[in-house]
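fold-stage: in
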Amino acid sequence: MTLSDFAKKISWLGHDGFRIESGITTYFDPFQIKTDVKADLILITHEHFDHCSPEDVEKIKGPDTVIITEKDSAKKLAGDISIMEPGDKLTIKNISVEAVRAYNIDKAFHPRKNNWLGFIVTIDGHRIYHAGDTDLIPEMSDINVDIALLPVSGTYVMTAAQAVEAAKIIMPELAIPMHFGSIVGDDEDARYFKEKLEGVVDVILPD
C-alpha cells in the first residue's frame, strides 16, 4: 500500500487524538471524541487528562482491546494494559510498537524523569511516530519514520516553529500537525507548520 493511500486511513479526532483503521483499529490519546468505533489497540502517551481520559477509553474499548501506556496512566485505566518505558518494544495484534521519550526542556509540564511516552508504530509496513507532549528534544535525531504526528501549539509543547525544526531533523515523508484547536493552539499554528515545510516535507492539515 502506498503511503498516500495509507494516510487516508488516519483520522484526526482533535487535540492529540488519532485513529488508524487498517485491519486493526488503533487509537492514540482519545480525548473528547465523538466516535464509538471500537478499538483493537489504544496507545496513551501520559496521564494528563487531555491524553489519558478513562471516559473516552470506555467509549471505544471492547472485550479484546489492548491498552498500551506508561505507569502513571495505567493506574487510571482498567482492562488489558501493557506498560512501557522509553526504549521498550513489543508487538501486539501484529503491530510493532516502540516507546520513545517525550518531555519538556524549557518548561516543567512533562519532566524527562517521568518517562512519559511518544510512540512509533509500524502498520502495513509504514512507520508512524506520535510524538506525544514534547519539546524539540535531542532524541528526535534517532527517529526514522514515514509519518510524523507533531505537536505545534507551544505552551505545553514545542511551538510551531520548533515543530518545523523537528520535522527537518526527522525528515518523514509526511507530517501531520496536532495539539491545536482544543486546549491551546489554533489553525494558524498548523498553517504555519505546513507553510514553512513547503518543498521540504509534505504536510497534511487535519480537519
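fold-stage: in (second)
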Amino acid sequence: MADVTIRQRSPLWRYLLVGGAAVALLAALSAARGADEEAGPAPAPALVAAVVDMSQVRRGSQQWQDAQEERTRLLQTMKRTTDKLKQQWQVLRTELENQPPGTEERRRKARQVEQALQELQRTQLEFERRLVQHYNQSIRDLFGDLSRVVGDYARQHGITLVLKKQGFEATGPQTAQQSLQMATTEVLYADAALDISGPIIERLNAE
C-alpha cells in the first residue's frame, strides 16, 4: 500500500523537483546579472597627456624643409616663366599701338596680343594650381608620418592622449592665417614637461 502511494505521488514530486531547479537557476542568473550591473563597466585607462608643438615640427622636420625648398624652386620657375610671357605680351602690345588703325596688320597684331595674354593667364593659373597641390600634398605627407610616429611613441611610453599645439604671437599685427590659427588652436597652455616635440622630430628625421 505504501508503494502505491509513492508511485502515485512520484510524478508530482518530479514536477516539483524540476520546477524548483528552474527557479534556482533563474535566481542564480539574476544574482550574477545583478553582480555585473553593480560592478559596472571596466575602468577607463588613466589619462596621460602630452603635446606636440607644430611650429617646432615644421622648423625641425627635414621632410618639411625639403618640401619648402621644392616649393621655392617651383616659385622661382613660375616667376621666370611668367616674366618671360609677360615681356612677350608687352612687346606685342607696343607693336599693336604702332600699327595704323583699321588695317589688317593691326587686327592681326591684336589677335596676337589677345593670345599672348591668354597664354600668360593660363600659365599663371596652372602654376597656382601646382603650388596649392604641392602644399596640400606636403601637409598630408607630414601629418601621415607624424600621426604614425606619435602613435608609436605614445604606446611605448604609456601616453593616452596627444594634442597638437600651435605656437603664435598674440601681439602685433596679425595676418588672416595667424588669426585663424589663434581661433582654432587646441592647446592654450601646456607645461613644458608635457612637450614631446623633440623626440618626435628626432624620430621623423631618423626615417
